[in-house]
Amino acid sequence: xxxxxxxxxxxxxxxxxxxxxxxxxxxxxxxxxxxxxxxxxxxxxxxxxxxxxxxxxxxxxxxxxxxxxxxxxxxxxxxxxxxxxxxxxxxxxxxxxxxxxxxxxxxxxxxxxxxxxxxxxxxxxxxxxxxxxxxxxxxxxxxxxxxxxxxxxxxxxxxxxxxxxxxxxxxxxxxxxxxxxxxxxxxxxxxxxxxxxxxxxxxxxxxxxxxxxxxxxxxxxxxxxxxxxxxxxxxxxxxxxxxx
Length: 244
Description:
Elements: H1 10-13, E1 26-30, H2 35-46, E2 54-57, H3 64-79, E3 90-96, H4 103-115, E4 120-126, H5 130-134, H6 152-168, H7 179-183, H8 189-204, E5 211-212, H9 214-222, E6 229-233, E7 239-243
Parallel strand pairs: 1-2, 1-3, 3-4
Antiparallel strand pairs: 4-5, 6-7
Protein name: RloB domain-containing protein
Pfam families: RloB
């Protein structure tokens, strides 16, 4: 009798994708394709969140309105899925203030859609996302302005690089992966407190530079698997996460 080699069936060739777990399905749309998407992708891995529950994308334009439009587009696509589990429970738009002329228009669009029942949230950093990184090292409250050919965002990165080199003996690199794991060496309570305090100071002074709302999204994500999240939107469009 001739021995016949067994070939795997089509079924055995198919790799199972990540499973949707029993907690919120979340969409995070980022303004850039490097620093913030890589950071949140690293957070998902480090905190053992299912990538089927938390999707991160930077595949949109580099301005606030393109972020909002992309977030709305993906959310509406999820509504048309036959599988109810595909619908996103929360949508976050990560934007930088920097020098974008359409910042306010994009914020108004988020408010408009949220008033129409979309679970869409505005997570802004002024001047840029790297200010959240800076909060890991210091509570920096002086306004970060543009100088010469450098935007306020460029100068924020310069401030960060000083601290980054001290802590990690290397220059900060926007494209570096595993930034969340690297920064986890610093007690998370430090950046959360620094970020929250500077945001309060900024709001009380009627300004936003420097500040970020990223700390609230971080709290939401790291508690996502264990607690039922509740999000409160303040009149100034700050989001606030409360663990139930």
